[in-house]
Structures are given as C-alpha cells and as structure tokens.
Amino acid sequence: MRLSLKLFITILMLAMSTLQIVADDFTLKGKVIDEEGRALELVTVSCAAQGKVTMTNLKGEFSIGLHTADSVEVRFTMVGYGVRKRLFRKPKGKMTVQIVMHTAATLSEVTVTQRRRQTSQTEQLDRKDLKQSPSTTGNATEELIQQQAGVSTHNELSSQYNVRGGSFDENSVYINQTEVYRPFLISSGQQEGLSVINPDMVEKIGFSTGGFEAKYGNKMSSVLDITYRRIKGFEANATASLLGASAFVGYGNSRFSMSHGIRYKTNRYLLGSIETTGEYRPNFIDYQTYISYNPSKKWTIDLIGNISDNHYNFKPENRETSFGTLADVKQFKVYFDGEEKDRFSTLFGALGITRNIKDSTSIKLLTSAFHTKERETYDIVGQYWLNDTQTQESLGVGTYMEHARNYLTADVLSFKLIGHHRTRYHDMEASICFKTEKIKEQSREYEMRDSSGYSIPHSADRLDLIYTLTANNSISSNRIEAYLQDNYRWNKGNNYYTLNYGIRLTNWSYNKETTVSPRASLAIVPAFNNDVTFRLATGIYYQAPFYKEMRDTTTVNGITTAVLNDHIKSQQSIHFIAAADYRFKMLNRHFKFTAEAYYKALSNLIPYNVQNMKITYYGGNISKGYTTGLDLKLYGEFVPGTDSWLTLSLMSTRQKLNNVWIPMPTDQRWAVNLHFTDYFPGTERWKMTLRLAFADGLPFGAPHRGLEQQQYRAPAYKRADIGMSYCALKNAKGIKGIWLGIDCLNLFGISNVNSYYWVTDVSNTQWAVPNYLTNRQINAKIAIEL
Questions:
Q1: Are the beta carbons of 593 and 584 closer than 8 angstroms?
Q2: pLDDT on residue 290
Q3: What is the mean pLDDT of the chain?
Q4: Bridging pattern class, strands 559-564 and 467-492
Q5: Domain limits at 85?
Q6: Nearest-angstrom CA–CA distance, 596 and 740
Q7: Are both 87 and 152 inside the same structural domain?
Q8: Residue 102 sits in the same domain as residue 127
C-alpha cells in the first residue's frame, strides 16, 4: 500500500513537471502585411536569443514555437522594409499578432539586415556601389557590370563588355522598359564617349548573364534593366574631375517629378599616357531628362529624353615601342601624318502612358524613337622602322596609309502595348510591339602598305591595296514582337517555389523570318535551410540581325564590296543554367555566395573578326558552336558597413568554321575580379575603394586572314585602380555632403595590350607590334550634394 502511494506521488510529480515544461513553451502565430494591407511572403521571423527562425508563406502567415521568459523579442525583417520588433512579456500558450511592415522610403533610419533573395535569373545590383569608385570612363553603371561574374572587358576606356563568350553586340539594355540603342560605327573604346545611362538618375539595376525572361528582347548574351527614379523633394549634385564634369537637379512631390542631368567627358588626359603621342581632342556631352506625372491614381505619364554629341579628334605625331622577349627585343618607330575626325550624334526619347484599371491590373502604351547620325573619317600615313636591338640590324622600313569615309544614319521608331495583372500566386505580363527601322550607310575604306620598297601584296604589273572596302546600302523594314509570361509563386510546407515561364514571338519583314522562343526558370527555397536558394533556367534565344551582322562582302579584282544579305537568319542560343545561392553570417557580418554553371548551344552563328577593336561580321549563318563555364561570386561585408565582392569565372567558347573547331574571339578562359571597400579606422569620413582585374588574354591573328588564322593569344589583362574619398562636409547649411576624392588609375603602371599593329620585314615575315592601353594616372575630383 505504501509502495502504491509512493508510486502515485512520483507519477503526480512527473506529470506536474511535464505540465510545467509545456507551460514554458508558447506558439506565436500571425500575419505580416504591408501598408496597403497586402500579404508579404518570405518575411524572416526570428528570435535571436533562442536561435529560432521561420519565414512567412505566400499568404503572409507564419507560426513559430518559442520558450517563455520574462521578455521575448521577435524581429520581422525583409529587404526594402524597415525592421519591426515586437516584445512579449511572459508569453504563454498561443498568441496571434498582425505585423505591418513599412517601406524603407517612409522611415528616417533603416537597418538592412539581409541581401535581396534572387528568385529569377535577373540579379538586383546595389546602386550605392556606383558612388566614389575609381572610374576612367565616367560610365559608372557599365563599370559596375564589368566587375560581375561572367563579364569581361579588356579596355578601361570602353563601357563595352562581353558576357559569357558573347560580343558586346549581344547585350541588350533597357531603361524603364524601353530598349535603347548605341551608335553603330563605334569601333573602339576611345570613340565611345558617354553611355546612354546617367548614373545620377538610376534607382534600380537588374542584370542577367543568361536564362533571362521572355519580356527581354532578341539578344543572346545578357540583359541590363535600368529603372530611373522618381525624385521626392529637391535634390541636386555636381561633380568635377580631370576627366570631365556632371550636374544633376531634380524636384518632385506626390504627383509630379522631374530630373535633369548633363555630363561632359574628355579622354584627352588619359590618352596622353599611351605610346602614340599627338594631339588628342576627344569631347563628349549629353543631356537627359526624366519627367513623371500622376494626374490621378488611375493614370501615370512618363517621359525620357536624351541628346548626345560625341566627338573624337586625333592627330598622331610619333610612336616608339619595344616588344619581344628579354633575349630578342625588337624596336618599332613610326612617324605619322594626317588625322582622324569622328562624330556620333544621337537623339532618344520615350513616352509611356499607364492606366491602372485596378490595384492589380494595368495597361501601358509605350512609344520610343531613336535617331543617330554618325561620321568616321581618317587619313593617316605612317612611316615605320623595325630594328633588332641586339644586332642593330634593320628588319624593315615601310610606309602605310589608312583611309576611311564612313557615314551612317539610322532611325528606329517603336510602339509597345504592355498589360500586367497580379493575383496572390501569379504575376502575369503580356505585350505586343511594332518597330520600324530605316538605316542608310555610305562607306569607303582602304589601306596601302609598302615594305622595303614593295607594296603588299606585291604585283609586277599594278599597284594593289592590302585592304579595300566600299558599301552603299540602305534598309527599311518592320519588326513585330510579342511575349507572354507568368511568375508563379507557391509553397508546399516550408518549401518555397518561384516559377517563371513564358514565350516570345518575333517576325521581321526583311527576310520574312518568324521565331518562337520559349523560356523558363525555377527557384527553390528548401525547408531544410531557408538561407539556400536553388535556381534552374533554360530557354531558346534568338538574335535577329540588325545592321552589322547583315553586311556580306564579295571581292572582285581586289575590291571588296559590302552588300546586305536578305537571306540571313537569326542566330540561336539555347541556355542551360544551374545555380545555387547561400546566405550566411561570418564574424557577425552578412555574406552571400553564388555558384552558377552554364552551357550554351550555339547555332546559325554569323562569325566575326576583331581587328584593332573593330568587329567585322562574315555576313552569313555559316558556323555553330558552344559556350560552357562556371561563375563564382562572394558578396558581403568584408568590412562592417561596406559592400565588397570577389568573382572567379572559368569559361570555354568555341565555334566550328569550315569543319574546324576554333576559339571564339571572346574566348577568355579565366578571370578574377575584386571590388573592396574600406573606411579608415575610427572614422567614416575617409573611404577607400580598390578594384582589381586579372583576366586571360584573347585570341588574335594577322589581319585580313580570317578566324582560322587566330593562332595567338594576347597577354593577360592586369589592372588595379584605387580611389580615396573624404567627406569634407556633411548635413550642414543645406548641403548634404561635399566629397573630395583622388584616384590612382592603373596603380602598378602595367602595360596592357589593347590590339596589335602588323608590320612586314624584308623577308616577308609579319611582326605583331602591341598597342598598349593607358599608363598610371592620377585623377582628382570633387562632388557636392544638395
């Protein structure tokens, strides 16, 4: 009996202990919404003290089990919204709450605790990385793109870039849903001037290196999607440096916003550091405006305007270059006569009218116009001497003359209708676009080369030119483009899925070609780790010929004529991409690691050759190929409060031409980029930014011999730029800040090769004389923000 009583008391005490343990736990449930009452999915709900974390589902709902205490703090965080905290006093049982998240723009101070989760093939880049970075071009947006994984450039004077083996012509650029164009005759970074993107006006930067959505147009390699910002209140800034100047002013309220920007740039200071001495007078200027007006909640009117005038004037005088190996050094001297005068004038405008039928449904009419008038003219004569420095033997004496009279005008007019509808799980978009294009060109180029008294190629009975080209073409055509896509999000348990699928159709009146391009991508946030995102993407991408790709050449009696090929077809690329993102904390700082493997099957290729930074297409679909590679990126706070990143890219791209597999002209087998930002100890007024680039050299060969003769590879591209900025004044007397900066460009003075000039010696041997890029330079600048 006593034993039974003792057993009963023991069981009772155990039961009471269990009830006490259960009572020490509580469950917090609820819903997270925005200021307009819409559910917010993928909001992080965490209790740091207990190491518990969960996320809201697509309905904005969450549930988390916690231990009770005198006080329990729960945090709600999401990129773009301010951090919300709730403190619960001695919580017990089941509790239900509703949390309203406020956008960052409505808060005076916002702490961002996470990086934006990427659930599509378009990565959102941080625009704050555009500020205070060392720059040679003034094109801050493109310089930010050039530092991303899978992107390469070998010319610091150029805003052009290559993505995963594609040429710079394979990258599309959008500003506020409008596709923008660049001048067509541009052949080198020295002539590029200012890009169409004004960094002072940028709000969002979306960039995709492949597998992009159906809404993006007919390019095979990449998409740069820029959104200009609506100004709230008054804002102004001015910047001046040895490389140019810019000014920006904007004003806005709840219904009206306008911004204006003007930029001036000159490369005269930088070009003075290259080996070819002479008179450089390049100057580039552009003006942009963005005006947005909301007469009511139902209507929005947007206007973008751009005027750009780029001049490149160059009068070379002389040049001396030493090249070769330590045991076999050659010296090349040349004296010049003549000059080059180029001008690229462009006008661009877009008008968008949006009608909001409901909060979740809108329709937009977007019309745009682009006009360019381009001139490329030069007559340059050079007399050169090629010597062996070891024996002082003269290897060659010769003369060459280069002549060009190239003129082009182009007009592109487009009308686009876009419909958008959003539901709880779907975000659907459809569009139809009509474009009309008119292009007219007149070109005349030739090159004469004389070596040791004999013209090349040598003929006993006549004088032949080594290169000649004539063209007189015009085209007037129409394009119809349409797409339909859906972004479908759902969750199954604690697994979250985002599926983007769509189809794009195009028709071109010039060659009567119709293409169908299906595309799809899937992102998965697994239940076992909410900091991991898996991404898969595939699609068929067509690049419709525009102008350069259509020019086919025929040679009769040594004279080459360029005509337009009306049988040319679109190039095709099939993308296969597998990627993973991992967000983690190290040393109490936030980081993100991304790995992306890809394969692109290429067909109907139009091969092209690159000589002295000038791209010349073969004018026919005569090749096929592939591109495969791996891109790695580590992004995060290497130093607290700053953003830095390190990228590594591995790639191989080849094409089959005349039954022979050869490297593509952009076959950059490896590349490493580092962007590092730091503050001086004890102060945030001093800021340092370091940019490093180390990339494999590209294939090259003798001119006018075709891709099959690209048997050599240029040296690796190595460059370091460092910039120091000091905030001399902050938030005083109506001035937001005054920044003083100094940049050291090409810190180590490395002589990078831009291209090669080929000379012929007395034994008819050709020598590749390297053309080097800029040397070490110091640039000082001042920026004032109002």
A1: yes
A2: 96
A3: 85
A4: parallel
A5: 23-106
A6: 39
A7: no
A8: no
